[in-house]
Amino acid sequence: MENNNKWALITGGTAGIGKELAKLFAKDQYNLVIVARNQVELDQTATELRTTGIEVITISKDLSITEDVQALCQEVTVPIEILVNDAGQGVYGLFTDNNLQRELDIINLNIGATVILTKHFVKKMVERGFGRVLNVGSVAGKLPGPWQAVYHATKAFVLSFTTAIREELKDSGVTFTALMPGPTDTDFFNKADMNDSKIVQDKEAMSDPADVAKDGYEALMTGEDRIVSGLKNKLQVGAANLMPDSAVAHTMYEQQKPVDQ
């Protein structure tokens, strides 16, 4: 199959929502640069994606390390038409109990890497007069989140950041979309040491990452500013908009506290 020169870059592209997004891009014949920490998982994902006839470049980086993010920018030489900032992590527990360095790493990953990659690749998109950016946020960005205070705050940044730059560049030919899923059946909660949380126990309430990815992909391609994935999550965000932040925080405290409390 003769390849085109459409390229998308996806961070966190080997699992969860990121991998499902990669499948959608591959189906539409976008060549891919996928970024994650684990080279074995990158190789496995690349092999799977190449069955659609596209090119796949794998780059192993720890995006919580600023130098790795900057190195990624320099290593990517293909023209990136679409940037997907999907890589992100959280940590569960009370703020006073959590490890500070882990929280700083989460800020570097969820915020720092998003800012660096967006600035680098969007400048090139603006020069070409076309491009798309999908920043994977969360409904957490609209909900102050006790037991995940730092994670929720980083997602509030992602939403505000995406909305502001969209306005700045509205006449540039570059679009910005924020994808806002709720609890999704991925490895996020395991990595966040959150399996004892009430919100994780209800597996039936969790979204399928393939459904979330489809919502985000369609919103990206039609140039929407943001998409809350899932009716339940839309209702939760709508209700939160009508409540004082203190009341929202209390509700989230009860939803996210450990099951034994």
Helix percent band: 40-55%
CATH superfamily, by name, is NAD(P)-binding Rossmann-like Domain
User: What share of residues are in beta strands?
Assistant: 5-15%
Give the C-alpha Rg.
18 Å
Number of domains: 1
User: How are strands sequenced across the largest beta sheet?
Assistant: 3-2-1-4-5-6-7
Number of helices: 10
Low-confidence stretches: none
What is the terminal-to-terminal distance?
A: 58 Å
CATH fold assignment: Rossmann fold
The structural class is alpha/beta
Shape: globular
String of helices and strands: EHEHEHEHEHEHHHEHH
Mean pLDDT: 92
EC number: 1.-.-.-
Family: Belongs to the short-chain dehydrogenases/reductases (SDR) family.
Protein name: SDR family NAD(P)-dependent oxidoreductase
InterPro entries: NAD(P)-bd_dom_sf, SDR_fam
Could you outline the blueprint of secondary structure elements for this entry?
Elements: E1 7-11, H1 16-27, E2 31-36, H2 39-50, E3 56-60, H3 66-75, E4 82-85, H4 100-128, E5 131-136, H5 149-168, E6 174-180, H6 188-191, H7 198-201, H8 209-221, E7 226-228, H9 231-241, H10 245-256
Parallel strand pairs: 1-2, 1-4, 2-3, 4-5, 5-6, 6-7
Helix pairs in contact: 1-8, 3-4, 4-5
